[in-house]
């Protein structure tokens, strides 16, 4: 069923009785050409692009829970391409272009909103770094505008400009950045993949990966064994455990990242704003809630709930930047498991097992990468060679030290990212 | 989360700096490139009981080996790293 204005009108006049489930709920077959473990945004987009770009449609996406129930349904929904380092910048640039065409491509309203993103800076040194970053973004064909203090004031008049400790010197404005409805992205890709013939199997847990003579043969699941010659592991927070099923050790430490939503307010914050002097970023959802977050909790955890010190830190940073939000009540908070790599950048690569691929290590930035991650993982699995915009994102980069993509410049060590 | 430092007693988590897996106590031999790669980057990363190193940065400055559960945030034991490394 295609979604369009006529359909909405017709259903509205006939009691909305004609809507059908957006994807099938099939039982797994005994064999597929490709199995994708993980039905999050990245797994679903991988399946979708495998079918659409490479013509491989005999695919199963196996999800332990339900579609859109993991990190893709629990994040701060920011979409942007303001990266700096070669390796990352072209990847996210590619991703943003896919975002801009996604809704037409999927015939699904993901509520993608290019509302503009402003990264504030608070010192001369930070301004220089952002000017350089902006030049890099413009050179790769994306957009960036360096705003001075008055330029920022025009866009964000509600900031505390008189703060002596953290004066606002200006901001790097990225007009094409913005937000999207997070779980709609998962649903859109699920529907798109399903229409191309992909089986999305929910409530099915992978319990083992069958490897024989160094080649992958299939997986064991709670619904029985399924054979496949190519298997992709796309499981974010559970990357270490699923990789271990195939005897692999990965350079990942899992951490919790918290985020918060306030009660619904009238439209107040038009952009996505990030505070350069304390890790804090904020936007307002279409329902009116302020959505904001900060750093990870900085110790390995699978608890899916955070701890109070980081919560306090985020609130303090928010209050320093925009005291006006102090009266808004926080309705809820959540913590997701982030698969952190030593350099803070992702991995899309083959493994030492033939036919087994991994897409992991998204750290705290997986949402904006959903389309390009699927695009590149599909390319890797179909052609058995990396896509050019993700070619540097290998497991090997930690051993060799080549192409380490340490965006923060802090070093490639687990406790720094 | 509160951590019971053997020297200072129970303190707020904010006094402590997280370093990472207690593997850091077992340095590989010089020239063992595979060992160094594993030591620096590869992690067991269990969803359950783990051992890691914390620094009592805003307290007595000692290094601690903490055994805790990553799924529940429960802390099972806190030992001075100097005793573990003996």
Automatic annotation (TrEMBL), chain A:
Gene3D superfamilies according to UniProt: D-Amino Acid Oxidase, subunit A, domain 2, FAD/NAD(P)-binding domain
GO cellular component, one term: cytoplasm
Predominant place of localization: cytoplasm
Cofactor dependence: FMN; FAD
Domain Rhodanese: 34-78
A GO BP annotation: tetrahydrofolate metabolic process
Reactions catalysed, as given in the entry: sarcosine + O2 + H2O = formaldehyde + glycine + H2O2; sarcosine + (6S)-5,6,7,8-tetrahydrofolate + O2 = (6R)-5,10-methylene-5,6,7,8-tetrahydrofolate + glycine + H2O2
EC number assigned by the record: 1.5.3.24
Entry superkingdom: Bacteria
InterPro entries on file: FAD-dep_OxRdtase (IPR006076), FAD/NAD-bd_sf (IPR036188), Rhodanese-like_dom (IPR001763), SoxB (IPR006278)
Any GO MF annotation of the entry: sarcosine oxidase activity
Keyword tags: Cytoplasm, FAD, Flavoprotein, FMN, Nucleotide-binding, Oxidoreductase
Location within or outside the cell: Cytoplasm
Family assignment from sequence similarity: Belongs to the SoxB family.
Name of the protein described by the UniProt record: Sarcosine oxidase subunit beta
Originating species: Litoreibacter ponti
From TrEMBL, chain B:
Signal peptide: none
Species name: Litoreibacter ponti
One term of GO molecular function: sarcosine oxidase activity
Superkingdom of the source species: Bacteria
Gene Ontology BP, a term: tetrahydrofolate metabolic process
Name of the protein: Sarcosine oxidase subunit delta
